[in-house]
Fold this sequence. Notes:
five-stranded parallel β-sheet; four-stranded antiparallel β-sheet; elongated
Amino acid sequence: MIDKSKVLIVEDDEAMAVALQDGFGYEGYEVMTARDGMAGLEMARAETPDLLVLDVMLPRLTGLEVCKRLRRDGDRVPIIMLTARGQEIDKVLGLKLGADDYVTKPFSFMELMARAEAVLRRGQSAEGQLDTYRFGSVLAQFRAHVVLKDGEPLEMSPKEVQLLEYLVAHRGHAVTREELLDSVWGYDHIPFTRTVDTHIAKLRKKIEDNPSEPRWIVTVHRVGYKFTG
């Protein structure tokens, strides 16, 4: 089993919660449970689990909102969302909000376990890469909030470092301005996409050799931006 062993299950259906608790416990995980979204959010913040299994439909706070708030806080705990058959929009929203995977009910426990181990592996890999990430002549030390170019520190605002980190974490994938606003700034339904463009322009001036022809942060027409390092 992966060397991350604490799982938080947020599920309001008692039979499902017990079955998941027994299953993860049998596989050697330390299991915590919460029966509503607010309790799950508070427990996730207080207990720092290694994996969060999160039902979409929960009382007090939906699973989507729990996911959104955790990602807004910068919490990268791997999240698997449980959705009912036919909740296609919830799957899409969950992934956009930062969930790592989803499983549709009814499902086999072995399928869930396989997905859990996969997201834990990805989480460990990304965590190790994002502590320090090098591309070209740039060395980003995200935990220390330091970015060097040619060995010299760049003057970077906290938001610029967070923006770069988010782009690096999603390297190779186009991310929308709205996603960046929600994940880096925490804005929701506020049309300030120009804020993203302004910060991208500043970031390019600092990390790109030729900001007018960027190599690392490229514009994806009608979508947003993509980090190519």
